[in-house]
Amino acid sequence: MMRRLAVVCISGILVLCALGCGKNGGPQTVAVSGTVYLDDKPLAGVQVNFYSEQNDFLGTGVTGEDGRYELFQGAVVGENKVWITRARGSEVDPAGGGDPAENPELDVAQAEAVAEAAAGALEETTAGDLPAKFSDPDKTILKYVVPEGGSSNADFRLKSE
Fold it and tell me: What's the first-to-final CA gap in the chain, in angstroms?
């Protein structure tokens, strides 16, 4: 009798653990990528940040030599505040592998872990050729409305002051 009770309890705990590890832990995100230009030239080595104030969700990506970025964990559908900062000492692969279409097993918790690892590898600064209106989260004028299907052309054409 005790053995049967132990098996039932352990089975119940395993079921609860499995339910707790589901993919419903955060807002639904979609793949977003694009290119960042400064004065019509691709801008390499910058971190692109998409923030949904409505869902309190931050998606980040890093541009490669061609100015192209892909948000590691995607972005929330709807309006997002965007800011772009210089990234120094980045060991992060700009391709990121964060496209949910390429990695359907990437759930919200894993995506957040990727974002935290990326943030730890980046040292941000607003100095240099990025004006505060693009690089400061409190002063940015950049916004992007993410469509339901995501976007592969979320491009930003910045002009230096």
Answer: 78
Domain regions of the chain by residue span? 26-158
CA distance 160 to 104: 39
Rounded Cα distance, 41 and 39, in Å:
6
Asked if pLDDT for residue 13 goes beyond 50, the answer is yes
Judge if pTM exceeds 0.90: no
Q: Which two three-digit tokens encode residue 30? A: 């979609």
pLDDT band at 124 (very low <50, low <70, confident <90, very high): very low
Q: What is the pLDDT of residues 49-75, one digit of tens each?
A: 999 999 999 999 999 999 999 999 999
Nearest to 158 by CA among 78, 72, 85: 85
- CATH architecture observed for domain 26-158: Sandwich (2.60)
Give pLDDT, residue 129. Answer: 64
Average pLDDT over residues 101-121: 53
